[in-house]
Amino acid sequence: MMQEQKSFAQHTTGSLYLVPTPIGNLQDMTPRALEILAHVDLIAAEDTRHTQQLLNYFEIETKQTSLHEHNWATKVPSLVDDLLNGTDIAQVSDAGMPSISDPGKELVAAALKADIAVIPLPGPSAGITALIASGLVPQPFYFHGFLPRKGKDQVAELTELAQRPETLVFYEAPHRLKYTLTNLVTVMGSQRPLVLARELTKRYEEFLRGTAGELLEWANSQPIRGEFVILVGGNPQPVQEEKRTDLPVNDAIDQLIAEGLKPNAAIKQVAKDRQLDRQLVYRQYHHLED
Q1: Helix, strand or coil for residue 168?
Q2: 68-77, 131-140, 225-234 — which is least confidently predicted?
Q3: Euclidean distance between CA atoms 52 and 44, whole angstroms
C-alpha cells in the first residue's frame, strides 16, 4: 500500500531531514540546508570530524552523533527512538546526497517503518554533476557508484555491465583508479568511450575525455590525486541475451570475445546466461578431456 507523507501539523514525532552537503565548493551549500542544520536538534553524520569543519565554517552549533557503516546496526534503533520522542534529526554524509554511496538508507527505511516523516532536500551529487558535462549521452544513464574492491568481484561486475547501452557512472578513489581502469579495458576493450571527472567543484576540477585505453595510459603516466567519477559510454550495439542464447555455446563465447571481453570473462557470462556450470563451459570451449 502506498505510504503518504504526512505534514508537520499531522505528525507528532520528530522529522528526519536528508541534507546534502557540498562535494567540494562550500558555496554550494543552500540557504535551506543551512537553516535545517541550524535548527534541528541533532545531526547524524557519517564522520563527525569532517562535518564539524562544515558547521564551523557556517557557525552552526548543532550537536552531532555518528552514523556510519560500522555502527548503523546499533545506532539506527536509538535514533528512531529519538525521532519518536519528538527529536528532529538531520542526516548528512561527508559529501553530496546522503544514502546514495554512503551510510544512511537503513535509517530512512527504519524511520518510514515507524511512520516518521522523511524530508529530502535537493543538492549536490557528484555523479549527476559529472554526467551533464561529460559529453556522453546523459539519458538514459546507469548509476553504479563504487565497484567491488576485490579483482575477481570487480571483473565479474564489470562483465555484467559491459553490454548495457546506457552511460555508466562509477565512483573511484585515487589509489584504486589505475586498477579499475585496467579492469575496464580488460572487460570492455580499449576503445570504449570514457570520461574521468576529477575534483569536481574544487579549484583543480578537471575533465579527461578519450577512450578507455587512452585514459589508462594517462593514469599510468603520472601521480593520481583527487576523487574521481568514471563515466563509460554505453555499448552502442548491446547483444540481446535471447539472441545470444540461440547460438551454440562456443559461438556465443566467440561473439563476446569479438566484442572485447577476455575469454574467461566471456565463458563466465555465457555460463551465467544459460545457468550452466562455468567449469563445464570452460572445458567444452577449450576442448579439454574429462
Answers
A1: strand
A2: 68-77
A3: 11
What residues pair up with 66 in beta bridges, in sequence order?
Answer: 45
Query: What end-to-end distance do the CA atoms of the chain give, in Å?
Result: 54
Backbone φ, ψ for residue 92 (5° rounding): -135, 155
Residues 128, 131, 132, CA angle at the centre, nearest 5°? 90
Set of cell numbers at residue 127 = 555523479
Contacts 24+ apart (CB under 8 A), 52-55: 54/21, 54/22, 54/26, 54/29
- Rounded to two decimals, what is the model's pTM? 0.75
Cell of 162: 559491459
Rg (CA), the chain: 23
Question: Residues 135-160: what's their mean pLDDT?
Answer: 91
* β-bridge mates for residue 171, sequence order: 146, 229
Is the pLDDT reported for residue 6 higher than 60?
A: no
∠ at Cα 65 (64, 66), nearest 5°? Answer: 125
